[in-house]
Amino acid sequence: MHKKINSEKAPAAVGSYSQGILAKGFLFSSGQLGLNPATNLLVDGDAAAQAKQAMSNIGAVLEAAGVTYDNIIKTTILLKSIEDFAAVDSIYKSFLKEPFPARSCFAVAALPKNALVEIEVVAYTE
């Protein structure tokens, strides 16, 4: 059995997906863009600014599930340009602490809403 997780502090879905799903002791988040939850528009600025907002949005989904950034065990980061890797990594690690979660990072051709970065996480809840 699984349960939908939704936070009004995170942007509404821009497609047919849930912000997060709880299943068997794990939270699986959908990818978060650097969207301002109040406007559903990308925040102004570069990939670092969008990464900071994406991580804040992830925090809202984590909170709705009753967990914190410390519960994250796996992340996936999608970048429009691999040149943004260092800037995004700097923001990413400011939200987390050792031991850092396992992570994959990919450059992709395009992201929804022409975003520069998208981040998804898996966290344990038990």
Decide which structural class fits the backbone.
alpha+beta
Oligomer: single chain
In N-to-C order, the SSE pattern is EEEEHEHEE
The number of domains is 1
Just give the CATH class: Alpha Beta
Beta percentage is 25-35%
List how many beta strands DSSP finds.
7
Ranges where pLDDT stays below 50 over 5 or more residues in a row are none
- Kindly state the percentage of residues in helix: 10-25%
Looking at the structure, the CATH topology is 60s Ribosomal Protein L30, Chain: A
CATH architecture: 2-Layer Sandwich
What is the fold's blueprint, element by element?
Layout: E1 2-5, E2 20-23, E3 26-29, E4 32-33, H1 47-64, E5 72-79, H2 85-95, E6 102-107, E7 117-124
Parallel strand pairs: 5-6
Antiparallel strand pairs: 1-2, 2-3, 3-7, 4-7, 5-7
Helix pairs in contact: 1-2
Task: Give a quick set of tags describing it.
126 residues, alpha+beta, 60s Ribosomal Protein L30, Chain: A, 7-stranded mixed sheet, 2 helices, 7 strands, globular
Structure description:
By secondary structure, the protein is α+β, with helices and mostly antiparallel strands. It has a single domain, classed as 60s Ribosomal Protein L30, Chain: A (2-Layer Sandwich). It is 23% helix and 29% strand. The chain contains 2 helices and 7 strands. It has helices at 47-64, 85-95, and strands at residues 2-5, 20-23, 26-29, 32-33, 72-79, 102-107, 117-124. Strands 1, 2, 3, 4, 5, 6 and 7 form a 7-stranded mixed sheet that branches.
